[in-house]
Amino acid sequence: MATRGRPAKVLSSKDLLELEQFLRNLDFLKKNQKQANLILHSKQYYELDEKDIRLLKIVHREKIQFEQRQALITQIQIKQRNKQPLLANEIEILQLLEKEQDEDTFFRLDRALESYQKIEKAALENRIRLENEHKRDILNKTNKVLTEAQKKRNAENQLKYALGGIVLDICKKFELTLDPKNL
Description:
Elements: H1 13-25, H2 31-42, H3 50-81, H4 88-98, H5 103-142, H6 148-173
């Protein structure tokens, strides 16, 4: 039976080095990030217990999410440069970027990006759902019940097809040639 949920992450020494550098480059740290930073500076890899590794995995996942949210900033800025209409939360994100980055602004920006990311994901899922519904509607329309006139025409066409087959078969038996121009 297939396993469910997120696949198990095995942190390599490269992952830990990247995580340490990421934490060093952040202006402000969350509680988990501060604890992970302390663990990374105070313990060797072989000294880490299960609790430490679990915390490092959580912070590694937060790192990936942070990087995804930073990519959203670039997308919003491109949208602004292209003079596309901006949504209210996109305007809020751009305003937070313009402010001086103190701890409060930094975390407000992070929360705003997180909500924007969730809204974008929901919008994408909704768009996919609507496309699937549209495809399903088209399929249902093509599979609709035939009217009586259509059924009668189909029966007549089948009869014509069958009669034509019989005539061709008889012509082959008696070695007659049929000229399509002189029927």
